[in-house]
Amino acid sequence: MTFGKGHHLHLIDGSAFIFRAYHALPPLTRKSDGLPVGAVSGFSNMLFRYIENNNGADAATHVAVIFDYSGKTFRNEIYPQYKAHRPPAPEDLIPQFPLTREATRAFNVSCIEIEGFEADDIIATLSCQARDAGARVTIITSDKDMMQLVGGGVEMLDPMKNKRIDSEGVEEKFGVGPNRVVDVQALAGDSADNVPGAPGIGIKTAALLINEYGDLETLLSRASEIKQPKRRESLINNQELIRVSRDLVQLDCDMNLDFTLDSLEVQVPNVEDLVGFLAKMEFRTMLKRASDRFGIDAPNLPDAPAGGGGASIAQQAAVPDAKPFDLDAYEHVHTIGALERWIDAIYERGYVAVDTETTGLDAMQVDLVGISLCVEAGQACYIPIAHKAGDDDLFGGDSLVEGQLPMDLVIDTLRPMLQDPSIVKIGQNMKYDAKIFARYGVTVAPYDDTMLMSYALHAGIHNHGMDALSTRYLDHTPIPTKELLGSGKSMITFDKVELGKAIKYAAEDADVTLRLWQIFKPKLHVEQVTTVYETLERPLSPVLVQMERNGIKVDRDVLSRMSNTFAQKMAGLEAEIQELAGQPFNVGSPKQLGEILFDKMELPGGKKGKTGAYATGVDVLEDLASEGHELPARVMDWRQLSKLKSTYTDALQTFINPETGRVHTSYIQTGAVTGRMSSSDPNLQNIPIRTDEGRRIREAFVADAGKKLISLDYSQIELRILAHVAKIDSLKQAFRDGHDIHAMTASEMFGVPMEGMDPMIRRQAKAINFGVIYGISGFGLARNLRIPRKEAQGFIDRYFERFPGIKEYMDETVAFAKEHKYVQTLFGRKIHTPEIAAKGPQAGFAKRAAINAPIQGTAADIIRRAMIRMPAALADLPQDVTAKMLLQVHDELIFEVNDDACDMVIEIVKDVMENASEPAVKLDVPIEVDAGIGNNWAEAH
DNA sequence: GGGCTCACG
DNA sequence: GACGTACGTGAGCCCG
């Protein structure tokens, strides 16, 4: 709706508020770094109260805060002394000016300042425009200069006295109506602004004269008629000064503004912006108030915060009044009374940092050794449970060390707290601890994870391991694990660590975790990634716990048979290769192979890398093979088999859990900077599929008896996202119409019909489509398609010509990265790109990564959202149907389902996946999911 | 432990 | 004008 009748515009004089706040409040400073924030605080408070009270009959429909722009204005040109006697702003107020603008924006209120103009003129222009449009206007200020604007629906509101001023109010003050206020001011002058006026004439006299003569010009022309000599002389002798004064006080109603009144419509504050700002400023009371009002968790500001924006990392790390780490102060909990006291302390606060110590790294197999807790920086304990003496008693087992509570008692005592929805459990990589606890019958919930917080905050800046985070943010290096357990052959397990040392190490970890949490929690708001953390990171972790615990059944016999076959084939190839080489050598050694190829056989194309070794990668071997050389071709075959055998058919067998008969991968939620996960121990995200021989490995991944595996994967999700973010209408339409997207691209580019297209042309278009997602280069495309570089560049040029939006997207993304040092997904995930400023070859790298990250990252966010919603969606299934989510492979999810329920489950899962972006993001392209069913992964995919 | 190679999306 | 480039991962192997 266009601004006009029925609307009510509030214009807030920001500068006036700043000064008032500054003088009214004691000189507050931000606790962490001493930044003066008194005026910002007062200003923010005022704005907060304003917003809370903006209801009822006088409520604004449109609002703006207007600020003075520092520097000279046109009035200084008319009269150099204008406001010249004003002392400069106090030193501790100056840094607060930009912060008040930030505060205004944080409250989602329009914030206006224009170079060369005072706030008064902007207010005048806006109020005239609004009045002419037939709307109501309220100018919120105590500056009497603004009274000339009153009338015709315009009123003033003096916030000091909370008094509305209409035309009558103006007359009370100036003795004339609003339209003559300027005349009175011109005569009376204004000492505050150094406006001269006519000497000896004040407001009273001025009003009297104006009322008598009608207006200023008439008065001046008839000045000689004035009876009182003093007044007469003053007017006659100071005509010029009076006219200048009039020009100074006359507000400019005709400024050219580059925005419309419509754009000032009242907005609901964005909670994240607001809370982020208040947290950054460390305004505890307002933070609480905002949190209450918007029904969110108040971010915890640490008592001794680690510094805010602007400070260097080193300064941030050096917590000025932080408690030092005292490893001797940690408590050894070995009585039930002590344990209960800790639980009481936890309930007093509502949160606790938890860490588990175990006999190894595989959470599906290791034993729990002890638990550490921390409720406050420096206040941590360790509860040893299963530390062993290492004395190999008569029965072949080690005896438990003294000073430990029984396992069952500890678990049973802690369980209610660990499962209590009102107690936040805090961990570093809590997925691991949650998996351990799950095996002891405890479902830890809810929990925060400092590793995930760091990931939401710092992806692309640094890694998120505890030692690194502690060193960086707490300026404290924890005891290295190596120091405790040793390394290599003589490494011991944690249960053999001497109790005294174990207490220090374990409790320290909980202490570090709690302190990191105290720093990261408010920082999430400041960096505006709270939503990312709370909707994409925290809720995914328990889902992964379940998936990893589910595992997938792997048939050892299938793998072992394949291993044997591969071994035989490899032996045959090895003999053949050595025959061709004319000597025995280690085929698996790139170095030896290089020497055979390029020194002994003197084949062309030998290129040495930086280590001085010949390169023998596939592309090199392929080139040689295509020239008809037999040996490199055989080496390629051998390598393929070697890879399949060592990485898959052999290695996978060692990962079959003896208890479950299944393979339990571990997902690293922070594995890729883009928001993708990675999988390890074993990596189940790179099981072969591209060759027939490799693909058969998937036959070893099987469904349990009476069940099937189903696989659902997003179709072309990254290209769809590209079409959306780059706003390519033809691509979007092709997706809506369900066309073959690569054929359509080819058709656009080369002007050939989609029907009966040459597969070669389509292949090239497909390569370009993918290239675009990766930040295409002529070189890369040329290499991929094995065509001359010039030709590849020609393709790219034509592509950009046909789809100009793509080039625009790329340029805009790179520009954004350069400006902000990060890029974002559609869901707000930040991927930091510090390298973007680099010079040299890294610059190209960084550019392409910046282009790719929003696309890959958005796709990653979408599947995460689907995964997070999956447990609830599957919970609606009938009682007798079990459907378990087992694996994620970037755009694919694998489930294990009762074989008679596959269709039902597919329907549900598909629905969740296809609508996962909503309601947060509405894509302009449909998202489609393909499904497959089988007894094993090869069949299902 | 770094570099190379290669498996996946 | 030369250089060096597709994006994101994890793992096994060789070799110093």
Comma- or semicolon-separated keywords:
alpha/beta, 23 strands, DNA-binding, 941 residues, 6-stranded mixed β-sheet, 48% helix, Taq DNA Polymerase, Chain T, domain 4, Nucleotidyltransferase, domain 5, 38 helices, exonuclease, Rossmann fold
Give a verbal description of the structure:
The protein is of the alpha/beta class and 941 residues long. Among the domains are: 8-213 and 239-264, Rossmann fold, CATH 3.40.50; 314-538, Ribonuclease H-like superfamily/Ribonuclease H (Nucleotidyltransferase, domain 5), CATH 3.30.420; 553-663, Taq DNA Polymerase, Chain T, domain 4. 48% of the residues lie in helices and 11% in strands. It has 38 helices and 23 strands. It has a six-stranded mixed β-sheet with strand order 3-2-1-4-5-6. Strands 7-10-9-8-11-12 form a six-stranded mixed β-sheet. Strands 21-22-18-23 form a four-stranded antiparallel β-sheet. Strand 9 and strand 10 form a beta hairpin. Helix 34 (789-802) packs across helix 35 (804-820). It binds a DNA duplex (9 and 16 nucleotides) through helix 25, helix 27, strand 16, helix 32 and helix 33.
- Proportion of residues in β-strands: 5-15%
Q: What is the count of β-strands?
A: 23
Shape: globular
CATH class of the domain at 8-213 and 239-264: Alpha Beta
Termini gap: 52 Å
Class per helix and strand makeup: alpha/beta
CATH topology of the domain at 8-213 and 239-264: Rossmann fold
The CATH H-level superfamily of the domain at 8-213 and 239-264 is: 5'-nuclease
* Main sheet strand line-up: 3-2-1-4-5-6
Label the CATH architecture of the domain at 8-213 and 239-264. 3-Layer(aba) Sandwich
Rounded average pLDDT: 88
- Major sheet characteristics: 6 strands, mixed
Radius of gyration: 36 Å
Poorly predicted ranges: 304-320
The helical percent reads 40-55%
Number of helices: 38
Function: In addition to polymerase activity, this DNA polymerase exhibits 3'-5' and 5'-3' exonuclease activity.
Catalytic activity: DNA(n) + a 2'-deoxyribonucleoside 5'-triphosphate = DNA(n+1) + diphosphate
Domain DNA-directed DNA polymerase family A palm: 694-901
Pfam families: 5_3_exonuc, 5_3_exonuc_N, DNA_pol_A, DNA_pol_A_exo1
